[in-house]
Amino acid sequence: MPRWPFGDIGPCEVVYNYGEAAAVNLSPFLGTVALRLTDSMVDVQEEAYGDSAVDSVFSGIACELDCPLTRQEYDELVLFVPGTSLQSECLTFSAFMGCGLYDDAVEVVIKPMCDGVPDINNLNWIQIFKAAPYRDFELTFDRSGQRVMMVKFKCFIDLTSGMGGRVFRMGIPTSEI
User: Fold this and answer.
1) In the chain, what are the domain boundaries?
2) By CB neighbour count within 10 A (0-12 exposed, 13-18 middle, 19+ buried), where does 153 fall?
3) What is the pLDDT of residues 109-144, one digit of tens each?
4) Which of 5, 37, 64, 94 has the fewest Cβ atoms within 10 angstroms?
5) Per-residue DSSP letters for 72-121?
6) Would you list the DSSP string of 31-74?
7) What's 159's DSSP letter?
8) Could you tell me the pTM of the whole model?
């Protein structure tokens, strides 16, 4: 029976800055970890057909990863959430602008989990070549909902490693581990 190499249902582990000494395991999560890829297209039109498309041309992609974090320690969050600092045991969020994201983008790997254990088969992993985190969350306080901090990642085309034009791949060849 066919199935995805990384399973049909289940949680995952997300490793930020994979393969480096400063790698960070982003778990635990509450909710859906989602990797989204959307093709961008520009419609080709002809006057006789008004706003109706007679063709479309691919014009790029948008790729993002959503990680609904829960129960992280402040010293973990400051390692990958931009615009944060840890001072006197307090996590401070600062405003910033005009900063590029690509230079801070790192490799992120998603590993499916079974029974709380990450899959050791690298052919079942998803490798994002360049991803940079950004903040987009709201902390809620009520009598029944658990708090979650959504950290999103903008995924970029890898311009530096010979993977030009590529954003992510499903499976990592054993020769590259």
Assistant:
1) 12-33+62-176
2) buried
3) 999 999 999 999 999 999 999 999 999 999 999 999
4) 94
5) --HHHHTTTSTTEEEETTEEEE----S--SGGG-EEEEEEEEETTEE---
6) S--EEEEEEEEEEEE-GGGTT-EEEEEEEEEEEEEEEEE-S--H
7) -
8) 0.91
